[in-house]
Amino acid sequence: MKGLKAKRIRFKIGSVWESPALHILLAKENDVVVARCLDFTVSSHAKDEKGALKALADSIKEYVLTAVENDAIDTIFDPAHGKYWRMYNELETKQSSRSLKISIKKSLKSVSNDNLQQSTAEINYA
Asked: For the segment 36-46, what is each residue's pLDDT rounded down to a tens digit?
């Protein structure tokens, strides 16, 4: 199994319900892309990333609706095995590092050091 991407995705069931951000691990296994929701231990696969995510959305919908039908919402959070979370965290860290480097190069490289030193620093919460 080779990790491809770590994503945080919100899942919707029509206009009725939207999930908080769910942790999705995309990996290549044999000749298919596997999409795993690490919060629910639900997975699906397809030939490509788009198909795997679509199949995962259908699986999550069934998982959530089954939990509602069986009055099992209190047990719906079923985190995946630690090895998947470690893979997710490693991929997310690599992706964040790449994104940070690109952002710095794009925004700050052409600005003089004096201008940077005189600029104020702010914190914005996401």
From this structure: 999 998 999 99
